[in-house]
């Protein structure tokens, strides 16, 4: 006998039938599961892309592709804010190959928005996503005409937020009219957060790498600088002899001698080598600086006429200096060198004309400023900017401009020492230099000096009427060629010269001639001798003598960090006979009639 089915079955069957019929309906159980699966696949796809890439450029398109294909959108756009959040641009987009909607993305690539504009501003102010079913008629959507022209109808926009900042936005479009769907907006918000974290991480890494590259660059420059400084020192000694002897010979051979042209060649070559050596020393920060209190704005104004001539008629020169400028403490000659190097580079970058702007301004190096320029001390500074509207530089060139002998100019048109010298001078003066440039967009060099605290102290000078003298000089110099040159120069001008090639000979000469010596001319670096100690002994042995140092090189013996105390008498090598004669005569005259100092 057929038994009736158990009760639980008779009751379950209609329920199962009901579930079945319900689940197959659109929006039913199976549908919902399929939607949830597609959401998970989109999330997984983006997470996977991010885990396996290191830059936004690598990650963006696969991530957009995963979002669009899993969630049923025809085209996806990723907008990204600039580092200072001032503008937002379309950075990447994805649509299937041959998509008729791609035109809209190509057009959007040319646009720039602020964070307050359009649907992005809308999403930013709400801190959340929005769905526009009829985007082509949505007034807040500024690109609606572009979307309509590309056949797109509905859209979603989700802000990419991280750490309370708007890093960009995700926008997806579809051609069909698509009403809002449950779960889509929260999902896009989560995707935005994942992308936001990624963008933030990539940017921090970039900043760290840039800093590390900057450090490597300055270490490399430092090493080259030491090498250059060392070579330049030895060179200077030899050049002092070459220049000194060729000057002396030129004087002796007379104007009609057939030897004259050859001697002049030697002199010119020597002078050119001396110029190069000076630049190398400056780059190696081994240059002796004689800092004074300087008004940067006034310096620019005083150089204006000369610069205008150097720049030519096709370049417009603008010099701007706000009133109330603070002063700085720099070597005025070196500061002029810096301005000149930067201005001439600007000129060379504008062969068919343009505008060069020199500007001096006061700057407070606050926290915000120092974040952008690491290494700058807090407090008041004076900023020099030199901007041109010239060719600009790509990143590879920018990374190398401060290296000595790096030049992109034709042979004979640039030595590549301008900016390396500038870099050395600025650093040795306690300043900073950096640049902003892009190909085709011109270049701006910025030079920052700390504000000076002391007041200016001008010194009076006794006018020199003759280079001749009858005094006795003691010259301490270990390089026989230089010693010989100095001796010959001074003796031919009436002086008596005692020469000493080392410390012992110097002391012996001082003891034997104590009452006669009027001036001691001493090299700063004498092998095996502590120059400061030697000077101390000399002061005891010849108490009334003037002490004059000479060197092609800075040394801790008389200077700190290459900055010379104003009370030390110093002459840099190589020097010409006239220069050393003038200096010695000036010091001896000053001793006889001390100048009145103004304070
Ligand atoms: N304002 C600028 N615009 C474009 N490029 C520049 C600018 N300033 C410097 N450069 C680039 O940097 C390089 C190095 O400049 P630097 O002043 O050190 O040497 P140089 O100008 O080539 O030669 P020198 O200054 O010794 O005559 C230049 O050759 C050029 O490529
Ligand atoms: Mg140059």
Terminal CA distance reads: 132 Å
**Net shape:** elongated
CATH architecture of the largest domain: 2-Layer Sandwich
- Helix-strand makeup class: alpha/beta
How many beta strands in the DSSP annotation? Answer: 18
Query: How would you characterize the largest beta sheet?
Result: 6 strands, antiparallel
Q: Which ranges are low-confidence, i.e. pLDDT below 50, for 5 or more consecutive residues?
A: 456-460
The CATH C-level class name of the largest domain: Alpha Beta
Mean pLDDT: 84
Ligands in the model, by name, code or SMILES, are: adenosine-5'-triphosphate, magnesium ion
Total domains? 4
Q: Note the beta-strand portion.
A: 15-25%
Number of helices: 17
Multimeric organization: single chain
Query: Which bin fits the share of residues in helices?
Result: 40-55%
Q: How are the strands of the biggest sheet laid out side by side?
A: 3-2-1-6-5-4
Question: What features would you describe in this structure?
Answer:
By secondary structure, the protein is an alpha/beta fold. The chain has four domains: 53-181, Beta-Lactamase, CATH 3.30.450; 216-283, Signal transduction histidine kinase, dimerisation/phosphotransfer (DHp) domain (Helix Hairpins, Orthogonal Bundle); 292-450, 2-Layer Sandwich (Heat Shock Protein 90); 472-592, 3-Layer(aba) Sandwich (Rossmann fold), CATH 3.40.50. 46% of the residues lie in helices and 19% in strands. It contains 17 helices and 18 strands. It has helices at 7-23, 29-51, 56-71, 102-108, 118-126, 144-149, 184-253, 260-283, 296-311, 332-348, 367-372, 395-400, 418-428, 480-491, 503-512, 531-541, 577-592, and strands at residues 75-81, 88-94, 112-113, 130-132, 154-162, 165-174, 292-294, 315-321, 328-330, 354-365, 379-388, 432-437, 443-450, 472-476, 496-500, 517-523, 546-551, 570-572. Strands 3-2-1-6-5-4 form a six-stranded antiparallel beta sheet. A five-stranded mixed beta sheet has the order 8-10-11-13-12. Strands 15-14-16-17-18 form a five-stranded parallel beta sheet, with helices on both faces. The termini are far apart. Adenosine-5'-triphosphate is lined by residues 341, 345-346, 349, 388, 390-391, 393, 397, 401, 406-409, 414-420, 443.
């Amino acid at each position: 006998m057929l038994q009736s089915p158990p009760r639980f079955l008779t009751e379950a069957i209609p329920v199962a039938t009901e579930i079945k019929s319900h689940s197959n309906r659109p929006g039913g159980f199976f549908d919902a599961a399929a939607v949830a699966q597609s959401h998970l696949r989109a999330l997984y796809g983006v997470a996977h892309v991010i885990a396996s890439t290191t830059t936004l450029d690598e990650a963006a398109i696969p991530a957009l592709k995963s979002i669009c294909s899993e969630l049923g959108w025809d085209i996806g756009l990723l907008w990204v804010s600039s580092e200072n959040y001032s503008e937002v641009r379309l950075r990447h987009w994805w649509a299937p190959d041959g998509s008729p909607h791609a035109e809209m993305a190509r057009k959007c690539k040319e646009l720039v928005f602020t964070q307050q504009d359009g649907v992005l501003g809308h999403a930013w102010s709400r801190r959340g996503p929005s769905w526009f079913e009829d985007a082509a008629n949505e007034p807040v959507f500024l690109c609606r005409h572009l979307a309509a022209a590309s056949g797109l109808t509905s859209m979603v926009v989700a802000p990419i937020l991280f750490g309370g900042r708007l890093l960009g936005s995700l926008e997806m479009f579809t051609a069909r009219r698509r009403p809002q769907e449950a779960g889509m907006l929260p999902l896009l918000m989560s995707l935005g957060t994942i992308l936001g974290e990624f963008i933030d991480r990539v940017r921090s890494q970039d900043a760290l790498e840039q800093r590390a590259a900057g450090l490597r660059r300055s270490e490399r420059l430092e090493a080259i600088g030491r090498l250059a400084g060392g070579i330049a020192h030895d060179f200077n000694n030899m050049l002092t002899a070459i220049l000194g002897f060729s000057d002396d010979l030129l004087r002796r051979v007379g104007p009609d001698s057939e030897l004259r042209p050859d001697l002049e060649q030697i002199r010119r070559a020597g002078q050119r080598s001396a110029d190069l050596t000076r630049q190398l020393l400056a780059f190696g920060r081994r240059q002796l600086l004689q800092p004074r209190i300087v008004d940067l704005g006034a310096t620019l104004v005083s150089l204006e006429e000369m610069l205008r001539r150097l720049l030519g008629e096709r370049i417009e020169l603008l010099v701007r200096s706000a009133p109330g400028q603070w002063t700085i403490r720099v070597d005025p000659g070196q500061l002029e060198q810096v301005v000149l190097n930067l201005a001439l580079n600007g000129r060379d970058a504008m062969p068919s004309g343009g505008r060069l702007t020199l500007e001096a301004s006061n700057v407070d190096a606050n926290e915000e400023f120092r974040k952008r320029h690491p290494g700058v001390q807090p407090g008041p500074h004076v900023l020099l900017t030199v901007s041109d509207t010239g060719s600009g530089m790509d990143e590879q060139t920018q990374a190398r401009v401060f290296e000595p002998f790096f030049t992109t100019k034709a042979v004979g048109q640039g030595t590549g020492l301008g900016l390396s010298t500038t870099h050395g001078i600025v650093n040795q003066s306690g300043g900073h230099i950096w640049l902003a440039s892009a190909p085709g967009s011109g270049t701006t060099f910025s030079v920052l000096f700390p504000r000076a605290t002391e007041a200016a102290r001008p010194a009076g000078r006794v006018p020199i009427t003759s280079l001749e003298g009858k005094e006795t000089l003691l010259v301490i110099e270990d390089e026989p060629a230089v010693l010989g040159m100095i001796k010959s120069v001074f003796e031919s001008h009436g002086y008596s010269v005692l020469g000493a090639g080392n410390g012992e000979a110097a002391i012996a000469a001082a003891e034997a001639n104590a009452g006669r010596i009027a001036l001691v001319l001493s090299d700063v670096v004498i092998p095996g001798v502590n120059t400061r100690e030697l000077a101390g002994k000399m002061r005891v042995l010849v108490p009334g003598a003037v002490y004059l140092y000479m060197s092609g090189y800075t040394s801790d013996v008389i200077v700190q960090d290459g900055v010379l105390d104003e009370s030390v008498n110093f002459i840099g090598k190589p020097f010409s006979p006239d220069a050393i004669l003038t200096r010695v005569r000036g010091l001896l005259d000053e001793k006889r009639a001390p100048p009145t100092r103004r304070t």
